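re: ur question from yesterday

yeah so i grabbed the chain u mentioned. its 165 aa long if i counted rite. heres the sequnce exactly as i have it in my notes:
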Amino acid sequence: MLGKHALAAGEKTELTVTYLTQGRPGPFDKSVIFSTNIPGEEKIEIFKLSGDVREAPGAKIAVAPRRVVIEGNDLNTGKKQVFSMKNEGSLPLVIKNMRSKDGKNVYFDSGKDGDIAIEPGKELDVELQLKGRADVDGNRELILVDSNAINAGSAGLFLMIQYGE
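ran it thru and got these structure tokens back, copy pasting raw so excuse formatting
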């Protein structure tokens, strides 16, 4: 909106166009279009803006496996599982905690054990003692990995633990 709903003939106004690029890396094509009451020219494209937004530097997390199935005797007792955590970003990755989505089970707490830090391009194996089904409601548990990774979103990265097939 121009600040006014209409301009008189010959009247001028300043137009500022801003494209907010945060969180939108990659190529873009945008157009600025005026709506008018001129017959046959109801929409006028003023200019186009094209470019490529470079990704901001940051840590990026990749974890394998993302899904673990617990079966047999492990259903009751739980099991130890190694997760390979890799930093695919350009800044250090810092993992603060790993807990069930509902908060009932804490698998790693930096307040107690210190941060897990992984340098760019490096990988670290982290072993967690997964809970048995008696400690979990339902057939699966989601583990939230809380970190500074730019690809994990505000909720964090989730790992799924499936109890039984």
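noticed a couple things. The chain has a mean pLDDT of 88. also The CA atoms of residues 128 and 163 lie 16 Å apart.
anyway ttyl
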